[in-house]
Amino acid sequence: MPRSERPTAELLDDARRGSRAALAQLLSHVERGGEPAREVGKLTYPLGGAAYTVGLTGAPGAGKSTLVAGLVAALRARAHQIAVLAVDPTSPFTGGAILGDRVRMQDHVLDAAVFIRSMATRGHLGGLSLATPEAIRVLDAVGFDWVVVETVGVGQVEVEVAGAADTTLVVLTPGWGDAVQASKAGLLEIADVFVVNKADRPAVEEARRDLEHMLDLASLEEGAWRPPIVTTVASESKGIDDLVVAIDEHRAWLTDTGALAVKRAARLCEELVGIVSERVIERVTALRSGADFERLQAKVAAREVDPWTAADELLARLE
Ligand SMILES: Nc1nc2c(ncn2[C@@H]2O[C@H](COP(=O)(O)OP(=O)(O)OP(=O)(O)O)[C@@H](O)[C@H]2O)c(=O)[nH]1
Ligand SMILES: [Mg+2]
């Protein structure tokens, strides 16, 4: 039997025993979608729940990968097992940008407790917003304590993916109008911690002031989490300890207030809707090549039936 056709349960057993090759195959199943991805999902779901996820998003080149490398080093010092997912929604395949990330991560590549993987959309109908939580679940089931997700770019999907973490870091750099840009990109809503990286450059205090001002204007509810602003020089590993403290504090706040359970439940609800949508689309696609669809389509074209009535008829067939 070719390796790629090994039963999923067997792959999972191997991955849980530490086989990185088996883990990589499970993640490839997830990335490709379809029936094998579903099987992975079914087997890993009951095993998860212990991993903590941190998402990073921000403008290209803000220093996310450099920060991730620093974070990994800090968490490793606590003897934690860490997985890094570099998610690139713009590329159908693993692209050059991620290779750059790999180079920065190379200090960790030989460390058995650190696993680094890039993810691209491939065939998954629901795209990365479905594949990423599934991949996180696999890593969780295999025993990683922390899963760090870096997304490339600040489009809708990237923001969604990063915002689905337990703690979301929004990485900005000093520069005129950056807080305004962040606000436009919908980053302010998802931030649990703001990181002003490249603090070796001018206008750091202005960036901090702009952010504080925006947070003041957001008039947070009493008892709500106010995202702290951490300044870092990732390329010199400065400020990483403060960042870890901010993440720990957010985690403690989420746990103590019960917000973590609420957040995770909301995320599962979104995921459930996503899975249902994906399956409906699959069935609609299948229906489209059938005789019923052609017959109705002809009727609609001849104006015997309106498109809404025809759609109702087709939907009734999905049940
Ligand atoms: N001056 C300065 N440069 C930094 C700092 N942090 C990172 N850089 C540099 O900024 C460049 C981009 O860093 P990356 O970590 O690749 O940024 P990124 O946000 O992951 O980039 P993409 O993944 O391409 O969006 C690299 O040349 C880093 O060395 C910093 O604190 N100060
Ligand atoms: Mg990067």
3D architecture notes:
55% of the residues lie in helices and 12% in strands. It is globular, with a radius of gyration of 22 Å. It has 15 helices and 7 strands. It folds into 2 domains: 48-257, P-loop containing nucleotide triphosphate hydrolases (Rossmann fold, 3-Layer(aba) Sandwich); 272-316, no CATH class. The longest helix has 30 residues, at 259-288. The chain has 319 residues and is an alpha/beta fold. It has helices spanning 8-16, 20-32, 34-44, 64-76, 96-104, 106-109, 128-142, 156-163, 178-184, 187-190, 204-217, 240-257, 259-288, 291-301, 307-316, and strands at 52-58, 82-87, 114-119, 146-151, 167-172, 193-196, 229-231. The protein binds guanosine-5'-triphosphate and magnesium ion. Guanosine-5'-triphosphate (GTP) is lined by residues 60-66, 97, 152, 197-198, 200, 233-235. The site of guanosine-5'-triphosphate (GTP) has 15 residues, from helix 4.
